[in-house]
Amino acid sequence: EVQLVESGGGLVQPGGSLRLSCAASGFIFDDYAMSWVRQAPGKGLEWVSAINWNGDSTYYAESMKGRFTISRDSAKNTLNLQMNSLKSEDTAVYYCAKAALVTRGDEYDYWGQGTQVTVSS
Residues 5-20: pLDDT tens digits? Predict the structure, then answer.
């Protein structure tokens, strides 16, 4: 059974940092691309970042470039998101997601429960 469990969210001041983690199980972690997606209060889903199967290619939404860093740890089967220079508009529930196919990273079939990030002074 595929399981994705996010952690690391919390309250942080503007300009601060947080590191999110996603513990993955139930599939061969190193075969699949992974993504972070977020949902702000009252808003729709917004794609944040993606990483390919071995971590040598990363992708970011424009507003996250230079501030967020996605990574993966094969030994621990975890996906990470280092978030720096946080802004109030980064307040959202952050989800990790698994690519549906080993050959593509544009469709996702499993999502975690999400972790809340609140940026406020």
Answer: 999 999 999 999 999 9
